[in-house]
Amino acid sequence: PFKNKFDGMFYTINKLVIDTSAATTAQATGLFGVVDGGSVLAARIENIGLVDPAIIGGNKATNYTGGLAGQATNAVFRNVYTEGGSISGRTKLTGGLIGYVGNDSDAGSTAVKIDNAYNTADVAYNTSSGTSYGGGIVGKAKYNVAIEDVYNASNHVAQGIIASVGVTDGVSLTVKHAYTTSASLTDANSV
User: Fold this and answer.
1) How far lies 183's CA from each of 67, 117, 158, 166, in Å?
2) 127 Cβ contact partners less than 8 Å away, ≥ 6 residues apart
3) Which of 93, 101, 156, 163 is the right S-S partner for 135, CB 3.0 to 4.6 Å?
4) CA 77 – CA 112 distance, rounded (Å)
5) Quick one: the chain helix, strand, coil %, rounded to 5?
6) Distance in angstroms (rounded) separating the CA atoms of residues 132 and 130
7) Which residues pair with 82 in a beta bridge?
8) What's the whole-model pTM score?
């Protein structure tokens, strides 16, 4: 996993192409794959944008696909975006910026913070019954996630901010100052 700090200095990466659809093992697909700082908010991805990417995640049900990262914990994402293009994966674990964020338990402090971020890319995933849409910012969020000052302007998503909320208490996942042009922010009423 990526464990350090990356400052894109407000540059953009144009027409990034990643295709892991032929992979036979589970993959975390995105510019950074897996981001895990190892301790609370130690890794940082800042000041970078993807313009017109074409990112295709693996074909297994446990794949995570996002523009910047397939999976993230113990990380901060600030001043980041995906503009235009498409992000596609195999499951709801597909997001415009990150496929899967957070911890599997409610222990500890904030595991992932996303702020000042946006998405305008189409976010889709394939199912046995056809194509469905993922989350504008995040595919699935679990415990200890804080999302603030974000927006999604793609109408080709299931939910504008988070496609699937994996917590039940609504306390360890916070979303503040979020806007979307799609029908709803998340698949849960507890956020």
Assistant:
1) 22, 19, 8, 20
2) none
3) 163
4) 8
5) 0, 55, 45
6) 7
7) 50, 119
8) 0.90
Residue indicated by tokens 């596609």: 88
At residue 69, what is the residue type? Answer: A
Residues in the chain, overall count? 191
Residue with tokens 């910026």: 97
Q: Which residue has the tokens 């990380």?
A: 75
Tokens of 187: 């698949």
| Per-residue tens of pLDDT for the chain, all 191 residues | 999 999 999 999 999 999 998 888 888 999 999 999 888 788 999 999 999 999 999 877 778 999 999 999 999 999 999 999 999 987 778 999 999 998 766 566 678 999 999 999 999 877 665 556 688 999 988 888 899 999 999 878 878 898 888 765 555 788 999 999 986 777 764 45
Which one, of 16, 100, 31, lies nearest residue 64 by Cα? 100
Distance between CA atoms of 14 and 32, rounded to whole angstroms?
15
Residue written as tokens 């360890």? 172
**Tokens 């523009």 correspond to what residue?**
67
Tokens encoding 36: 């895990």
* Structure-token pair, residue 7: 């400052």
Residue with tokens 């996942």: 173
Give Cβ neighbours of residue 138 (< 8 Å, ≥ 6 apart): 66, 95, 97, 98, 99, 100, 101, 114, 145, 147, 161, 162, 163
